[in-house]
Amino acid sequence: MGKKKNVIQEPAQLEEKSVIPRAAAYPGGMLLLIGFAAFYLSGRANPGVFTWHTYGAIALMVLGGLLWFTSGMDKAHLLEWFRSAFIALSIALVIRWAVVEPYRIPSGSMEPTLHGDPGFGKGDRVFVNKWVYGLRFPFMNKRLWQGSMPQRWDLVVFKSVEEDAVHKTLVKRIVGMPGEHFQIKEGNLLVDGNPLELPQSMPEDMYYTSPLNAPYGVQEPDSFSRIPEGHYLVMGDNSAHSRDGRYFGWLPNENIVGRVSCIWWPPPRWRDFTGFTTTIWWKALVVFSLLCVVLRLFFLRLCAVQLSPDKKDVEHLVVSFIRYGLHVPLLRSSLIRWRKPARGDLVLYSTQTAEKKNTLLLVGRIAGLPGEQISFTDGALTINNIPAPLPPPAPDTYTPAPPNAPYGRSKTKDYSVVPEESYFILSDAAGGVELALDSRTCGWVPAPNIQGRALLCWWPSRRCGKR
C-alpha cells in the first residue's frame, strides 16, 4: 500500500448566510437611477411643489439605495447596519425637528435678499433656526414652549394660512408687530402714523407697494390696519412680486416655524443673517471643528471592537493612526512609515474573510513578525519552535484551532512562515473560544492593512486603561 500523503486544503469558507443576495445590487442600482430620474422630471413638471409623484420617486431612491448598499450582507452585518442607520436617522430627525432645518427658496418674492427659483436644483438654500422661537409639536401649529419672541425685520419661515396655497411653507420678513396700527403709503411703512426707518442690513432703495386688491396694511379700517395680539404682518422684500400678508392677512405666532439664520448654498451666496459668525463663539467653534477633523483623519480614532463572536463583549478603544507612519486619509496607503509594529502591540487592522467577500475591521495583537515560523504547542504560541507568550491581557494558551484555521497550525511554509511585509495577528479573545477572527482564519496581514496602534480602552469603565 502506498504511503498516504498529508494534503493541506484551503481554509473552508466561513459560514455566511446572506440575507440579501449580492445580485440585488443590480436591481437596486436601477431603482436608484429610475427614482432619481422620476424625481427630476417631477421637479420639472411641478416646480417647487411636492406631489405624490415626488414622494414615489423618493421612495424608489431609498429602496434602490438600500438594496444596493446592503446586497451581500449577512444577517449580523445587516442588523448592525440597520441599527447604526436607525440611530443616525433618529438623531438627524430630532435635530431637524427641534434645532435646525434646511429650506429651499422656491420663488423670487424675497429678491434681492434671497434668490428663489422653482427649477430643480436651483434657488438659495437656507438654514432655519427652529429653536429660537420655541419648540413646536411635530406636524402641528402649536408650541411646546415659547422661546424668544419674533422681532421686526426677522426673516421667518412659516406655514401658510391659506388652505389652497401652492407653497405650504413660505419665507417672508416681519414688518408689523402685534398691537400696531400699520399702513403702507407711498412706499413707506407707517406705524401709528410714524414712518419706519429701515435698518442698514436691508437692501438699498427698498420700496413697498400697496396694491388695492391687497387690503391688509393698506386700507384704513381697523380690521385691515390694526394687527391683533399674537399676530404679525409679513411681507416679501420684492413686494411688487410677492403674495404675502397684504393678501392673506395677519400671521399667527403659532404658524412661525423658525428664523432664517444663513444662506449656506451656493457658496458665493453665503451670508449670515444673525451676526453669529462675527462672535468669538463662532471662531472658537470653527477652530475646534477643524482640529477635530485633523485629529480624526491623521492622529486618533475611537473604535468599537467586538471581542467575542456572539457580539456581547465589546470594548471602545482609542487608536493612534500616527504611531507607525503618516496615513493618507480614507485610504490604506501611507505617505511615510517611520516605525514597524512590535510583537505584543494591539493594532487596528483590516482583513478579509476566507471567502474574500467581506472586508473586516478588527483589533488584534501582533504575534508573528516577517520571516518567523508560527506554531502552537499545547495551545501556547511558539516562534521558531521557541515559546513566545504575549503580554497580558493576551491569553497564555489558545484553544485548538478548527480545520478551517490552518495558519500557524499547518507545518507547510505557506501556512507557518510569515511572509515579508506581513504579520501574524491574534485576537485576545481567541483563548476562550473555538474560533475568533484573526490570522489563524484570515491569514497573514499585510503591513499596509495595519491602520494604527490601540492606546487605551475608554469604555466599559471596568476595563478603562492602557492597552
- Judging by the overall fold, what is the CATH architecture of the largest domain? Ribbon
The strand count comes to 24
Quickly count the domains: 3
Q: What is the average of the pLDDT values?
A: 83
Biggest sheet record: 8 strands, antiparallel
Q: Ends: how far apart? A: 55 Å
Contiguous low-pLDDT stretches (5 residues minimum) are 1-17
Number of helices: 8
Task: Tell me the name of the CATH class of the largest domain.
Answer: Mainly Beta
Strand content: 25-35%
Task: Label the overall shape.
Answer: elongated
The CATH topology of the largest domain turns out to be Umud Fragment, subunit A
Radius of gyration: 32 Å
The CATH superfamily label of the largest domain reads Umud Fragment, subunit A
Q: Which structural class do you get from the secondary structure elements?
A: alpha+beta
Helix content: 10-25%
Primary descriptors:
467 residues, alpha+beta, Umud Fragment, subunit A, 3 domains, eight-stranded antiparallel sheet, 24 strands, elongated, disordered N terminus
Structure, described:
The chain has 467 residues and is of the alpha+beta class. The protein folds into 3 domains: 22-74; 101-278, Ribbon (Umud Fragment, subunit A), CATH 2.10.109; 295-466, Umud Fragment, subunit A, CATH 2.10.109.10. The protein has 8 helices and 24 strands. The protein has helices at 25-45, 52-70, 75-98, 222-225, 245-248, 280-299, 413-416, 439-442; strands at residues 100-104, 125-129, 155-159, 169-176, 182-185, 188-191, 194-195, 231-235, 251-252, 256-265, 271-272, 300-306, 314-320, 325-327, 334-337, 346-352, 359-368, 374-377, 380-383, 386-387, 422-426, 445-446, 450-459, 465-466. Strand 6 and strand 7 form a beta hairpin. The longest helix is centred in the N-terminal third of the chain and has 24 residues, at 75-98. The radius of gyration is 32 Å and the shape is elongated.
